[in-house]
Amino acid sequence: MADTSGGPVLRVAVAGASGYAGGEVLRLLLGHPAYRAGRLEIGALTAGSNAGSTLGSLQPHLLPLADRVLAETTPEVLAGHDVVFLGLPHGQSAAIARLLPESTVIIDCGADFRLTDAAAWEKYYKSEHAGSWPYGLPELPGGRDRLRGATRIAVPGCYPTVSSLALAPAVAAGIVEPTVTVVAVSGTSGAGRKLDVGLLGSEVMGSARAYNIAGAHRHTPEIAQNLKLAAADGGAEVDIAVSFTPVLAPMPRGILATCTAALRPGVDAAQARAVYEKAYADEPFIHLLPEGVLPQTGSVLGSNAVTLQVAVDADAGQLVVIGAIDNLTKGTAGAAVQSMNLALGIDETAGLTTVGVAP
Amino acid sequence: MADTSGGPVLRVAVAGASGYAGGEVLRLLLGHPAYRAGRLEIGALTAGSNAGSTLGSLQPHLLPLADRVLAETTPEVLAGHDVVFLGLPHGQSAAIARLLPESTVIIDCGADFRLTDAAAWEKYYKSEHAGSWPYGLPELPGGRDRLRGATRIAVPGCYPTVSSLALAPAVAAGIVEPTVTVVAVSGTSGAGRKLDVGLLGSEVMGSARAYNIAGAHRHTPEIAQNLKLAAADGGAEVDIAVSFTPVLAPMPRGILATCTAALRPGVDAAQARAVYEKAYADEPFIHLLPEGVLPQTGSVLGSNAVTLQVAVDADAGQLVVIGAIDNLTKGTAGAAVQSMNLALGIDETAGLTTVGVAP
Amino acid sequence: MADTSGGPVLRVAVAGASGYAGGEVLRLLLGHPAYRAGRLEIGALTAGSNAGSTLGSLQPHLLPLADRVLAETTPEVLAGHDVVFLGLPHGQSAAIARLLPESTVIIDCGADFRLTDAAAWEKYYKSEHAGSWPYGLPELPGGRDRLRGATRIAVPGCYPTVSSLALAPAVAAGIVEPTVTVVAVSGTSGAGRKLDVGLLGSEVMGSARAYNIAGAHRHTPEIAQNLKLAAADGGAEVDIAVSFTPVLAPMPRGILATCTAALRPGVDAAQARAVYEKAYADEPFIHLLPEGVLPQTGSVLGSNAVTLQVAVDADAGQLVVIGAIDNLTKGTAGAAVQSMNLALGIDETAGLTTVGVAP
Amino acid sequence: MADTSGGPVLRVAVAGASGYAGGEVLRLLLGHPAYRAGRLEIGALTAGSNAGSTLGSLQPHLLPLADRVLAETTPEVLAGHDVVFLGLPHGQSAAIARLLPESTVIIDCGADFRLTDAAAWEKYYKSEHAGSWPYGLPELPGGRDRLRGATRIAVPGCYPTVSSLALAPAVAAGIVEPTVTVVAVSGTSGAGRKLDVGLLGSEVMGSARAYNIAGAHRHTPEIAQNLKLAAADGGAEVDIAVSFTPVLAPMPRGILATCTAALRPGVDAAQARAVYEKAYADEPFIHLLPEGVLPQTGSVLGSNAVTLQVAVDADAGQLVVIGAIDNLTKGTAGAAVQSMNLALGIDETAGLTTVGVAP
């Protein structure tokens, strides 16, 4: 199935095609070389309350698919595809997945299968734990091995993606204390296409606000899980305490994460930078920017890149790492496509770019 | 030279690579199939006062070219390329072009060679007319014929692109009176990367303002020129009076043009729509939206699409046409690449998409 | 009742206090000199589905009233006030007004009583005409006389406010033909605090779109009504044809209207300007800007000012008038307070400013 | 001089009237009750390179002063005023102040006299320390006493204002460890009206970026100075280590600060909240929001309010305090007017409001 140059044509379905995650998956698929070469076909597009509408009325930026009509999200409709992307509300993926063949590559953009710890799941999501699937962040230690050939994939949360990538090298290298602070500014699409007064343009524009502070955000245990894995990769069995504050900013896309942690004694700026240079030297999507150059979300708009800068605040004794991603691309749909590529044995970067749309 | 699948590799230079037009040309070239296939090479990148800087420090969204250093914009540096894109301040293109071989395909994103009428040029640009080059709007009557094989191309202005495409079918079909009103809302990148207090984020955000009203904007005669050509295509030798008002809106990209003209007696909505359906039935980048669906600039962000809607205001006796483009893509760099494709005999749509980045 | 310096304290209620219009009325009342002097009391605050909530949870910018709890909107709750502002969905005002004493000053920010022509009402609002009340635009011919001592007032629509003030002098002076084109760019608060996918921040930011084009917007007959009145003031009994296109722009507040009309032969720029200078010489809130200076909505944010510029496009034979207002202030709540002042015999400008909040 | 109801009229000058700080001082003065009562006169308005221009061409939102012409900023022009506000580039205030009478109340919106520690000044500003003046943050311990009757006042930086007020109670009460992390999201006006490519609307909109990270921002020592003073007020002579990261967000105004610090053992959420309730119970401008309600900058636009929320992250062992201000009002010009009021013995809140302009 993995051969996109001559084998059978891949059939791909997108459940939740009227949402932001589903729309971004489709945007990326339409630019995927397999699609352009006729080796990947966009099959069923499904939705919940929007079933019956044309995609053009809901996602007017996807002109080539404008006339497609959305079907109901049911296992029957999704059957018969090689790859199924799920962009569903939390809690709906397990039921769908159970009824699809094991050989179908299911890539869940929702949270249901991200956490390995049932207690953490229940504490944060107030529901029964459905289990965990291979985690779609190839750049974490062991990430690619988990994804190659996988048929069930949990796409990471947007905040955990950038926060974990920003902190994992320092944690793995043991150069920081095991308490980290993440303050991450996000565009509004991270909240989904949800009818909520607080997400109206009139309320959002010209204003910044924090929400779900002091450990209340569901992405907190996911960051901790990733950093614990990073620590283990560095040989330390420790829990990482994560103080996480999400901030909503007046922009449609993008996350800028400011990550700080107390430096272990004796670590200087050059050593800290070297840790990151080594960790990400061969990563196609992670760019440690030249010294002094700072990430900005506008530069990664629509791209799968993660831009990072690392600095040492000697006076305060802190490591400061800044990371930027597009929450819908690398933070969701880009990771989903990257994971699909790995699962199918296609070139990992196919259909993804490190070129942003700016200004 | 036109064969990108097997012939010699095309060498392309971009003068003015630190500006918005130049940056967008580079963004599109990096995604061009000829570039991906190794048949197109990005050669010299030049700038004015930014010469000597890395592209990464000026265009941080173009990560694959981040380490490239900008050269001075001189004919020597630009020589030896098959295609040269010029994104220079008005008035500088002629001197450069004169010193490059005739066989070099020069694609000027500036205004210097857009107007055919020397008097109009002198009135609006207060300088000597340099002449006119084939005009890079393939969708105008005769547009493709002028561009195939051309080695000198004048890329249209962003406002004239959408305004002319919105009005040309009605003018050509003779269903409107020869006075048109265009009010076009533009994002700020249309003004270029210019240090001007009025373009600071603090001044722009949360505010809309008109500028260069009452015929003062230089794009006015360009719209009139295009519409006169459309009228001639319909068999009428008439001047079209253009009342043009540009409005700056708080967004980085996009133009939404509202075009109105008095309907000729007896023309109804169905007839008006039919005129547009016929005119653009085969155009790959122009999409007449379903009845009642209105264009929005956010849906064409980063895409080369033009979305249109046409309606009749029977009470006021007016035809109303709304058009949306991305001013940097179809409005500048996309038209430039589309023109390059035509000039070189490549598939006209190569490297261009009708899929926008949204939300 | 009109004496705010020594008579009985005015009791003021606001129905619809959780909406944008109601919130802006309260913002202005909190800064009104009568309130500061203890001569005006903010009484009942009511809402529909938000009844029972604190104002602080809904209008967090109104800190001095944060603990006030919203009551249900009923005639009983609103009784016993001297002034009642209504910020209700269309169609609800008549029923409320009928049950309040005739002496109560009722100021309706909704549309119900704006149109004098029942046929126009029924065509645009698809419901029975409730009648018409004195129209709260003091700057129109005869406006102040209609409002002094009035106990029922219909606050104008936001688009009609700026469009009518921009065009009325020219229409009254007979210097333009009786067909006008208005393209008005509006911030999102004009649509109200409505749960609508198209008003989400993610959809709105970075995008401009037209809506209700070609005469479909309900403010069209209101502009025509005002301009007919202006024409009559100039001695002409004519209908004015209005081609009106509203455009939604990514900003919370503000309307920038571009108004064009064919100039009558022989009228030059100086004459046109003189018409406006004369018309608005004594208006406290209308500012004809110096020649060449253009209105911007950011400069009137939170202010009751209308800024205008007038120009002649000699080539196209058009008069172009640009006007800017804050749609929530002069466009709604400011007009409401200005009308209240006139109705009560207070200084018309009390509690209103021409100083904007910028940048 | 303090009696505004009957004594001599106060003459007030503003140096730097073309900048954002100067413009905001003027906006507030135009609404000040002493101005409205004719007891405060706006005298000289001065500028640097903008001298000779009208205020209307530079600050079009200040319509009542539109015709005023800016003078050069010289001691001669500023002499003869009772109060002089300085909104000058860093380093220019001392020379001006030296030449004005000691009795003139000089209120410096710049940084020159904020830091008491010459070494800190020299490290961060790379110039000789000019000394320190009473610090214009009345809400800090001892703040009002320092300002009553003062004739030289240093207005705090915008970031230090909100950060210090957010953290001072916890530091004074000794409930946190002496290392604090502040990540503060700011609107662009905080950078001033500066011609800088990175501040262009095209670059700013749709993008967030950190800058001057890892202790490089000049406001870092100012926050530390304030928190040391708070600690001393609580009886502890300790230095507070401040990890400060400023983030630029796409909005014109507002700062949202996320402040975290490790909680001392045994402190719970109720105790933390009680500390803040007590500290700010009588403060007219500081509002501790109801539990669970989070500050947003849009709610304090144009107001002098500081909204705070405090929470305990028990898992991470951190106190999290979120604060919002308008950087130009409470963060600059509001503090300046509040300080003027205190210096002159006027009601501290005169001319200032806690009502924001929203949405």
Automatic annotation (TrEMBL), chains A, B, C, D:
Pathways involved: Amino-acid biosynthesis; L-arginine biosynthesis; N(2)-acetyl-L-ornithine from L-glutamate: step 3/4
A GO CC annotation given for this chain: cytoplasm
UniProt-listed Gene3D superfamilies: Dihydrodipicolinate Reductase, domain 2 (3.30.360.10), NAD(P)-binding Rossmann-like Domain (3.40.50.720)
Domain Semialdehyde dehydrogenase NAD-binding: 11-148
Localisation per UniProt entry: Cytoplasm
Gene Ontology biological-process entries: L-arginine biosynthetic process
InterPro entries: AGPR, AGPR_AS, AGPR_dimerisation_dom, AGPR_type-1, NAD(P)-bd_dom_sf, Semialdehyde_DH_NAD-bd
EC class of the enzyme, as a word: oxidoreductase
Pfam families hit by this protein: Semialdhyde_dh, Semialdhyde_dhC_1
EC number: 1.2.1.38
GO molecular function, one term: NAD binding
Active-site residues, Swiss-Prot/TrEMBL: C158
Catalysis performed (reactions): N-acetyl-L-glutamate 5-semialdehyde + phosphate + NADP(+) = N-acetyl-L-glutamyl 5-phosphate + NADPH + H(+)
Family: Belongs to the NAGSA dehydrogenase family. Type 1 subfamily.
Annotated function: Catalyzes the NADPH-dependent reduction of N-acetyl-5-glutamyl phosphate to yield N-acetyl-L-glutamate 5-semialdehyde.
Protein name: N-acetyl-gamma-glutamyl-phosphate reductase
